[in-house]
Amino acid sequence: MTADHNKNATDNLLLLSSTLQGLTSEGINARSERLDEMSALEIAQLMNSEDQTVAHAVEKVLPAVAKAIDAAHDGLAKGGRIIYVGAGTSGRLGVLDASEIPPTFSASTSLFHAIIAGGQAAIFEAQEGIEDDRAQGVVDLDAANVTEIDVVIGLAVSGRTPYVLAALEEAQKRNAITIGISCNPGSELEQQADIAITPEVGPEVLSGSTRLKSGTAQKMVLNMISTGAMVRLGKCYQNRMVDLNITNEKLRARALNLVRELTEADKEAALHALVEANWNVKVAIVICKTGLDAAAAFDLIQSAGGHLRQALNEAK
User: Fold this and answer.
1) What pLDDT was estimated at residue 181?
2) Residue of 100, 169, 200, 276 marked catalytic
3) 3-class DSSP assignment, residue 203
4) All domains of the chain, ordered by start, with CATH?
5) Is residue 131 annotated as part of the catalytic site, yes or no?
6) Is 200 among the residues known to form the active site?
7) Distances in Å between the alpha carbon of 129 and those of 48, 50, 117, 126, 136?
8) Which residues in the chain land under pLDDT 70?
């Protein structure tokens, strides 16, 4: 048994070694082969130059990103959630994006949920071994009580992380929409996900360190999906964050400036409207633009599904 086990482990390791060699993200970057001889400025210049290619790689997959935005919006509109699943750097990027949504859009903390292999401890300290645990991926996905109105986003630069693949497979059994974000074309994740987003950024400056260009590409895509979905839910007006969660003096000042900019009201009128609206920026804007009281302004916004532009159009 021991000999057979060792042979299987060796065979699996050799297979994985061959698989990694074939991944674009694991390749050798010819431009950085002198990396250990470079000056600080040369390293910065090279990394900056390489990073400039990331936006072009993401540009090529924008149609898929648009599908993901639509799927995320539709899921949220039905009362579902966006659930990120990842390991290592990819998992931490999911945690970061999910944590930024509530303060940016005054959204419930339940709308965006991040699952990272290894749990909360993995946010601060590497738990890399857990990424190979398919069973744990299923368990963690199950614990999130995923349903058919949720959207599950699998993050894995390699496109082969067992934990993530198993979680997405379980999500699909529950009829949830799945999105896969990787940086290697033709990967298992790309083939498995309902919507595949695969920006091909090429080999890293530091070979295999996918927290660099690959991580940047993932962050850019996540920015687009979450921001696009929330914008389409009515969380902004023009290009302003009008669904601020106002919790401090800086945000009160920002809210006051927003109301003044968008309504041309003077400072006193804008402040009065915000106080009447209990610091709800949308309600204050409707008050200033229409003369309605706070209750009527709130009802108008609610009837417009939270979309300020639609509410103002209906008030004309």
Assistant:
1) 97
2) 100
3) coil
4) 44-232 (3.40.50.10490), 249-315 (1.10.8.1080)
5) yes
6) no
7) 31, 29, 9, 9, 11
8) 1-22, 128
